Amino acid sequence: MSKAALVILVAVLACARQQTAQPDLDLPGADTPWTVTEYERAARTLEAVSDGSRLPRRSDPIFRWMSSSKALAAFEDPAMPVAVRIKGMMAYHAPLERIMNTYARWLLFPEVLDLVAQQLELHAAIAPLVDEFMAGFATDDPTYETRAKGRRQLHEGVDGMLYSLALALRGFGDHAPPLASIVPRLRTAVGRICRAVPLQATVKGRRALRDAATTATNPVARAVLEAIVAEVP
After folding, report:
1. What backbone torsions phi and psi does residue 109 show, to the nearest 5 degrees?
2. Terminus-to-terminus CA distance in the chain, angstroms?
3. Contact (CB, 8 A) for 159 and 205
4. Which of 178, 184, 188 is nearest to 221 (CA)?
5. Of the candidates 28, 49, 62, 163, which has an alpha carbon nearest to the alpha carbon of residue 106?
């Protein structure tokens, strides 16, 4: 099982308690899209928290800002070199993953799902740019295979995220936290990423989502999975 799968599965083991974050955390403001440096600062701040009840929750404006994909708008300009756009967006992956892992460590599952959707949105934006970038290299270019390997790793990471998401949602037993408000974003994010990468690259993840939708015993989780699967090619 991948590290990502283990991280998300940890969050399944408990239903998140509804608590309010403490206001004294050293986080950037919710007024302009965060830079990579600001996400790294947020990751350090949240990792240092010794009580999970102090983390911003879905009801907090700062969490909604932090878990949004507003920062990606800076890389939508087609006049910007493709390589620059890819590098700029990829820089967000590490701090976003650190933040997601922190929430998983404190078993805050609804927030983890929002952060998973954020990661899927990031990769859905990157994948077509990688294809566009690769199209500029002949297959006999000395650097082509190295670049192709990087693209395969990107696709494998996406497949792993979908697989982990399926395991996490299927893992609910007799209870599940409220998930209805998360469904639209998660469903859209899964649909986008499945259309952005080749179908053959996400076979394991797509199959796991479909299997989970038919085997999940919790009706809330099953309804979420069925909604997501409706967007999966």
Report:
1. -65, -45
2. 24
3. yes
4. 178
5. 49
pLDDT at 131: 94
172, two tokens: 């609910």
Chain-centre distance for alpha carbon 118: 4
Q: How far apart are CA 141 and CA 154, in angstroms?
A: 20
Chain-centre distance of CA 207, in angstroms? 19
Tokens 């566009």 — which residue? Answer: 132
Nearest to 22 by CA among 71, 57, 47, 48: 57
- Sequence-distant (6+) residues with CB within 8 A of 78 are none
Please give the pLDDT value at position 94.
Answer: 96
Domain extents for the chain?
3-229
- Tokens encoding 154: 């990107």
- Nearest one of 222, 203, 202, 204 to 213, comparing CA atoms: 222
Distance CA 174, CA 34 (A): 38
What mean pLDDT, rounded, does the chain reach?
88
